TrEMBL record:
Pfam families: Amino_oxidase (PF01593). GO terms for molecular function: oxidoreductase activity. It comes from the Bacteria. InterPro entries: Amino_oxidase (IPR002937), FAD/NAD-bd_sf (IPR036188), Zeta_carotene_desat/Oxidored (IPR050464). PANTHER family: PROTOPORPHYRINOGEN OXIDASE. Residues 1-21 are annotated as: Disordered. SUPFAM superfamilies: FAD-linked reductases, C-terminal domain, FAD/NAD(P)-binding domain. It comes from Nocardia amikacinitolerans. This is Oxygen-dependent protoporphyrinogen oxidase. Residues 38-471 form the Amine oxidase domain.
Length: 476
């Protein structure tokens, strides 16, 4: 067991609490947070600000470090994110959090370059003004798909559309039926792969594209019309934001501000109701619990507390991926784009490349050119078992193929992410509704994490904030 204390000594909790016995009634309120990723750390921070210095907040994590799937490594002695490296700019949660923590100067935005899509053995511009790759007109796809597909997209508004309100289906079935398989595989899959490490076949319309589902429910006469209705207005605002010195800056600041006790390399093994609170092994008796854990872990811990919720959470599957970061000579002839996404069916092993030095101005200032290659997606976790040498070789060879450049890495880092992202499959919205309904009356219990209402960092921040609010209100 690894323990990092911030503010309160472990002995303050009392030996009786460690064994699950009754705590001294004058002891401070004790809250356990299972999961030290961004959701759990935000929950800890918000609970500290709401409950004050006397609350005993304990964050338990099975990993040896905090941060979950956010992790900042070092390349050339400087920070580089090896998990998520950006957040959606239109959501306010991350900039607001950076401001609260005095980190506004860490906020950075991309250079504004567009990515390419590798399809049919060559690079194409990513179609503009799409909804997760689903177009609102045929012309935006020209060059990426064949002429027959272009004609099919153009004629789609004239075809009768059958859609049942509140229905759900996988994105592929909808897009391929209305626009053709090439649109799903070449335009939609590369973007869904970047968000969920999945594909149009593994992701449901209602969970991943709620605006589109709402437009269809409202009676849009075609998919073309539904996409047009769901698209946000054109904007010059940056689509993404990032953190100059990596997510570890935010994670460290949250941990410090939370002033919690952090127990790492220690999984939670059992959760049960107790008089006036909960018993969470191995911590013992606590007043409240936040489960900021992946869906399978949440399912296991809820098995005897909320069986309906546990069953629903157990139905949420996870995808795995690997990131290979490459440091190349600064003069490597990389294209002037933010990245290269790979369509379904290509012979490459990588699913995407982020041309980090092209995408982020602050990384362009470094002495080498930085590239991140991504491997693996839902249903294909084979890259997890490849050796570091095999992964680096695959990244190098595939990058040379898509850029036509000589790729000679000076340094490489491999980061594996087993079970890193929840798949928002068909029926996901109903599963989450079932989980939340089945736990709504469990006083002193809250859930957080990327499987609930979005896998992105802003959604995870929001889930941690909501969990903290629920717990604080239950303890008031």
């Amino acid at each position: 067991m690894g323990v990092a204390a911030a503010g309160r000594d472990e002995a303050d909790s009392g030996a009786a609490a460690e064994t699950g016995g009754e705590r001294d009634t004058v002891a401070s309120m004790r809250i356990a947070i299972v999961g030290g990723g961004i959701s759990g750390l935000v929950a800890a921070y918000r609970l500290r600000t709401r409950l004050g210095a006397d609350a005993d907040i304990v964050v338990l994590d099975r990993a040896e470090r905090l941060g979950g799937i956010l992790h900042t490594g070092e390349m050339g002695g400087e920070p580089l994110d090896l998990g998520a490296e950006a957040f959606v700019g239109r959501r306010p949660e991350v900039p607001a959090l950076l401001g609260e923590l005095g980190l506004t100067d860490q906020l950075v935005t991309p250079a504004g370059r567009r990515p390419l899509v590798w399809a049919g053995g060559e690079a194409h511009p990513l179609p503009p003004r799409t909804l997760m790759g689903i177009p609102s007109d045929a012309e935006s796809l020209r060059g990426l798909v064949d002429e027959d597909t272009l004609a099919r997209v153009a004629a789609e508004p004239q075809r009768a559309l059958t859609w049942y309100p509140d229905a759900d289906l996988d994105v592929y079935s909808l897009v391929a039926d209305r626009f053709g398989a090439q649109v799903a595989e070449r335009s939609v899959d590369p973007l869904l792969g970047g968000v969920y490490a999945g594909s149009s076949r593994s992701i449901g319309v209602r969970a991943a594209l709620p605006g589109l589902a709402a437009a269809l429910d409202a009676g849009a006469p075609s998919l073309t019309h539904a996409v047009a209705a769901a698209l946000p207005p054109p904007s010059d605002a940056p689509v993404f934001g990032g953190i100059r010195d990596g997510y570890r800056v935010l994670l460290d600041a949250l941990a410090e501000a939370a002033a919690a006790r952090f127990v790492t390399a220690t999984p939670a093994t059992r959760l049960a109701r107790a008089t006036g609170g909960w018993v969470l092994d191995p911590l013992g008796l606590v007043d409240a619990v936040v489960l900021a854990t992946p869906a399978p872990v949440t399912a296991r811990l809820l098995r005897y507390v909320a069986p309906r919720a546990a069953d629903a959470a157990a139905g949420i599957e996870l995808s795995s991926s690997v990131v290979v970061a490459l440091s190349l000579p600064r003069d490597t002839a990389l294209p002037d784009n933010s990245g290269i996404l790979v369509a379904t069916g290509e012979s490459l092993r990588a699913k995407a490349f982020t041309l980090s030095s092209r995408k982020w101005p602050h990384l362009a200032e470094r002495k080498t050119a930085l590239v991140r290659a991504s491997f693996g997606k839902f249903g294909d976790d084979a890259p997890l078992s490849w050796s570091d040498a095999e992964l680096i070789a695959a990244a190098t060879e595939d990058l040379a193929t898509v850029t036509g450049a000589v790729i000679d890495p000076e340094e490489a880092i491999v980061q594996r992410w087993p079970g890193g992202l929840a798949q928002y499959a068909v029926g996901h919205v109903d599963r989450i509704a079932e989980i939340e309904s089945a736990t709504a009356d469990l006083d002193g219990l809250a859930l957080a994490g990327g499987y609930l209402h979005g896998v992105g960092v802003p959604a995870c921040v929001a889930s941690g904030e909501n969990a903290a609010r629920r717990i604080a209100e239950s303890l008031a």
